[in-house]
Design brief:
The chain is an alpha/beta fold. It contains seven helices and eleven strands. The chain has two domains: 105 residues, ATPase, nucleotide binding domain (Nucleotidyltransferase, domain 5, 2-Layer Sandwich), CATH 3.30.420.40; 139 residues, Exopolyphosphatase. Domain 2 (Nucleotidyltransferase, domain 5). A hairpin with a 3-residue loop joins β1 and β2.
Length: 255
């Protein structure tokens, strides 16, 4: 059967159509996506404004028409941090359903981190042992650790690249003071999370599964993604004693 998976991220909205059959790997058929930084449509009270809601609804309608055109039999639609963290998130979801008939399922931070970890485990295989996966999106930062198919611990914090840039780095270029304040905020937010992960033991592999980590890998001197399926570099945050990280060429949206 042809299945559509619609992912409403904080930076990009993406529809992927795959041909899936029991016992067979899903084969990508077609893709439709475009940039949509919902974080940029947040008001001071944390709500997504009307312009942002309009853009979202327009894309959901585009995705529905694209899926129907290519004879998709079902459509699974998910949304992540941008709507999850918005103060009017439930109202936005209700409006999308009313105007498009598409029901967006809101993933919790833990669910999002777990899904990404599942894809990473499939990539590395059982023999890889304990894995720590880090995923910096536009609105949030997901972390997951475990030895099995699903993580032992999976969590999310509101430290996405777009969110932090919008809230803390409003000057261009940012001042040394604003960068220092942002670093302090990040360390304070991550400290209890890192402590929890530290109790679980050391990972054999640390993976970064987002475009943000791909960019960091390039800054650290790694080869471009076109040179191979993985890029390695010593770009782990200082607060995390994890050594070298490997940047995967996908996120849970494609893994």
């Amino acid at each position: 059967m042809r299945l559509g998976v619609l992912d409403i991220g904080s930076n990009t909205v993406h529809l992927l159509l795959v041909d899936a059959h029991p016992g067979a790997r899903p084969v990508p058929f077609a893709s439709h996506k475009r940039p949509l930084s919902l974080v940029q449509y947040l008001e001071s009270d944390g709500s997504i404004n009307d312009a942002g809601q309009h853009e979202l609804i327009e894309f959901v309608l585009e995705a529905w028409e694209f899926a129907a055109k290519h004879k998709a039999e079902d459509l699974l639609a998910f949304c992540t941090s941008a709507i999850r963290e918005a103060t009017n998130g439930p109202a936005v979801l209700a409006r999308v359903k009313h105007e498009t008939t598409v029901t967006l399922r809101e993933l919790t931070g833990s669910e999002e981190a777990s899904m990404t970890f599942f894809a990473v485990r499939r990539w590395y295989g059982w023999g890889a042992g304990p894995i720590l996966n880090l995923d910096i999106g536009g609105g949030s930062f997901e972390m997951a650790y475990g030895e099995d198919e699903l993580p032992e611990l999976a969590t999310s914090v509101p430290l996405g690249a777009s969110r932090l840039t919008r809230d803390w780095l409003q000057e261009d270029p940012p001042s040394a003071k604003s960068v220092k304040e942002l670093r302090r905020y990040i360390r304070t937010t991550l400290k209890p999370v890192v402590r929890d992960f530290g109790k679980l033991g050391k990972a054999n592999h640390v993976a970064g599964t987002s475009k943000t980590f791909r960019s960091l890998a390039r800054i650290a001197g790694a080869a471009p993604s076109a040179a191979g399926p993985t890029s390695s570099g010593n770009f782990s945050p200082r607060i995390w004693d994890s050594g070298r990280s490997a940047s995967r060429p996908w996120t849970w949206r494609t893994g």
